[in-house]
What we know:
Helix content is 4%, strand content 40%. It is mainly β.
Amino acid sequence: MWTSPHTPRRTGYRSVPLPDGVETYGVWGLSLPSLRRRLFRCVSIRENTDGTFAITAVQHVPEKEAIVDNGARFEPQSGSLNSVIPPAVQHLTVEVSAADGQYLAQAKWDTPRVVKGVRFSLRLTSGKGTDARLVTTAITADTEHRFSGLPLGEYTLTVRAINSYGQQGEPATTTFRIAAPAAPSRIELTPGYFQITATPHLAVYDPTVQFEFWFSEKRIADIRQG
């Protein structure tokens, strides 16, 4: 979306095959009598969940430079003794839980100091490397946030502080995985008086894992059939 001095308007682009002589990622130019050069100043870039980007820009007006050259002056505002630089995010953790048949991820963090008006920008992606894709983004004034309805997969969460001027602090990043728990490495059977105790053991202890037991007088070949 391009923001001009008058009315904002959207500009769309259509993908067409490369013409002869133009290579992928090559440098090329286009000259047409109907085209004229225009300058824009990028204000913000927002990544969408479908892999596209929304760019907000302000059109450059050469007449403004002439106004300054002819004597207009802009006095800078006085500085403040109090720092407004956004603090760095630290101690970022994510706790995964399950409720009502869906997975929840509760993210928590803190900052070394408190700055008035600071918000936090959260960016959650799934996958790795070139397969990484944006899942969702969020803005919050709290130091915690909950993501719900997440499918199985590996996720990367990035959190950074933003002040009222749009300045951003140092981000913090953490990864977490939502996956089915591993099968028990062994099952210990302890006989008792008219009873038997089955104790499953995991190769890596996970306090969030629970176990379900199926038993029968006959060997269960497929637990999905019962």
